[in-house]
């Protein structure tokens, strides 16, 4: 049995907001207690709210002071090694960016293979590539690169690879000169 999704918006009704706060506070304090008991760790919770003048603490003000003093006694070098939300997200973004770059490279290679097999099978014609509008799907017949010329298939009647390479180089030079 799953819970329904909670809508995370500001609760405008004061009595409903206070009731929800008390319920969530109780759950949070219980979770901190479980962490402390089950794994024998020093943990504390400090909660400030607009309903009371003093912050609420768990387990006690003295227990919170002990945990905080232990943390403050840790050398600054070790404290900097501890991960906070900002460093976690930064590390995660870097990892995802590398994965994206790898995936883009794989797609590009597959598209190049597809274009070359289509070129060999059908012949050749020339198409301008526009990196902003080119598709990156495998079914695409164009490759997304910097603005350049792409040789597309037509009929191929040449025999030697040297002749093919020289002719295509000459064609591309002529097209580039025409575009300037």
Automatic annotation (TrEMBL):
Question: What GO molecular function annotations does the UniProt record carry, in alphabetical order?
Answer: DNA binding; protein dimerization activity
Q: Which InterPro entries match?
A: TF_MADSbox (IPR002100), TF_MADSbox_sf (IPR036879)
Which one Pfam family would you cite for this protein? SRF-TF
Which UniProt keyword terms apply here?
DNA-binding, Nucleus, Transcription, Transcription regulation
Its predominant location is nucleus
Q: Where is the MADS-box domain?
A: 1-50
Q: Where in the cell is it found?
A: Nucleus
Transmembrane residues, as ranges?
none
Q: Which Gene Ontology terms of cellular component type are present?
A: nucleus
Q: What is this protein called?
A: MADS-box domain-containing protein
Give the species this sequence originates from: Gossypium laxum
